[in-house]
Structures are given as structure tokens and as C-alpha cells.
Write a structure and sequence with these properties.
The protein is an alpha+beta fold. Helices cover 44% and strands 27% of the residues.
Length: 207
């Protein structure tokens, strides 16, 4: 009888350890997810002007070049009233190309080593960044001014605004973001070296 009573005891101990081990695994999994979320939030606190603006500028150049092809076709078909628009588009392309060269050559912020700027084709996150946790767009010591920054969701509501300021990594655009979901558009006016001024419409997203 005593021998038979040992078996339930062993089974009870086994089940106790199994339950404890499962609870530990679940607890560790929850902790890992919490840490991952916290790291993601920290990563989204900053955007680097060089990366985001460079990618958006290349996209704008492509749009304008396609527009120029279309206008040139109209001119060849005898539509003379597009000549002024062609000249305006050519000037815009020139300005955006100058801006892309500047963005590519920007000095990285002190204390940070961001990845080299890439076009949207190779790094989509540069063209559609998540900004719900965004606090600053880092410029550093580069001769770059953001005269205005506003983010509108698909309903046209303003969900974020920014203005020039100072931060941990030098000159920044300090951004205030409301909680929002889905897609939105960041409208940015940028002045480079007090000479070249461009506007960028950058797709962004919330939760």
C-alpha cells in the first residue's frame, strides 16, 4: 500500500513543476513582448531628417520627371500653352535635385550613427514611418530650416505639428503628435542653406 501511495505523490510533484515551468514561460513571453514594444517606442521617438527627407525628395523628383514627360508630349501635339508649365517644372526638378544632393551629404548628428540615406525602393520605412511616438526630427548642425511641419490624417484633421528647437542631438524639429490610426501625410517646408526652398509630402502612419 505504501508503494502505491508513492505514485500519486510523484505525479503531484511532476504536475507542480510542469505548471510552474509553464507559468514561467508565459511570464517570460509577456516580458519579452513588453520589452519589444518599449524598444519600438524608443526607436520611433526620433526620425532623422537626412533619411526621411532624402527618400521623399527622390520620390518627388520622379513625380516631376513623369509630369515633364507628359507636358512635353502635349507640347509636341501643338499645345503651346504648356510652355510656361514646362519651364516651371524644369526649375522645380533642378531645385529638388540640389536638395537631394544636400540631404545625401548631411553630417550625422553628434552622438549618433544613423544608417546612410536610401531611396524608397530599398528602404520603405523611410517613406512611410510610424510617428505615433515621434517627439523630434533630428537635424543636427546642418544648415537646414524647417519653416513649417503639419501632419493631416485622411479626414484632413491635423494630428501633429512641429517647430524648430534644440534637443539632445543638436538642432531638431520638435513634434507634438496626437494619438491616431491609419495613414496620414506629413507636409514639410524646408529651406536649405538659406537658398533652396522645397515642399515635401511624406506618407506616415499611426497605430
Amino acid at each position: 500500500m505504501k508503494k502505491m501511495n508513492v505514485i500519486p505523490l510523484i505525479m503531484s510533484v511532476f504536475l507542480l513543476f510542469s505548471c510552474t515551468e509553464q507559468e514561467q514561460i508565459i511570464s517570460e513571453s509577456i516580458a519579452e513582448k513588453s520589452i519589444a514594444k518599449e524598444n519600438q517606442e524608443k526607436e520611433n521617438v526620433f526620425l532623422y531628417a537626412q533619411q526621411v527627407f532624402y527618400a521623399a525628395t527622390l520620390e518627388k523628383i520622379e513625380q516631376l520627371e513623369n509630369q515633364l514627360i507628359e507636358l512635353s508630349g502635349k507640347k509636341e501635339n501643338g499645345e503651346k500653352d504648356v510652355i510656361n508649365e514646362i519651364e516651371k517644372t524644369q526649375k522645380e526638378i533642378s531645385n529638388y535635385k540640389e536638395a537631394s544632393v544636400y540631404f545625401f551629404s548631411m553630417r550625422p548628428p553628434k552622438g549618433l550613427r544613423p544608417r546612410p540615406p536610401r531611396p524608397c525602393r530599398s528602404e520603405k520605412s523611410n517613406c512611410n514611418p510610424k510617428i505615433v511616438f515621434l517627439q523630434q526630427i533630428v537635424i543636427g548642425e546642418n544648415e537646414l530650416e524647417v519653416s513649417s511641419l503639419e501632419v493631416n490624417n485622411n479626414e484632413g484633421e491635423v494630428v501633429a505639428k512641429g517647430q524648430m528647437g534644440e534637443g539632445k542631438y543638436g538642432r531638431t524639429v520638435n513634434v507634438e503628435v496626437k494619438e491616431f490610426e491609419g495613414q496620414a501625410t506629413m507636409h514639410v517646408n524646408v529651406l536649405i542653406e538659406n537658398e533652396t526652398e522645397i515642399s515635401l509630402d511624406i506618407p506616415v502612419r499611426g497605430n
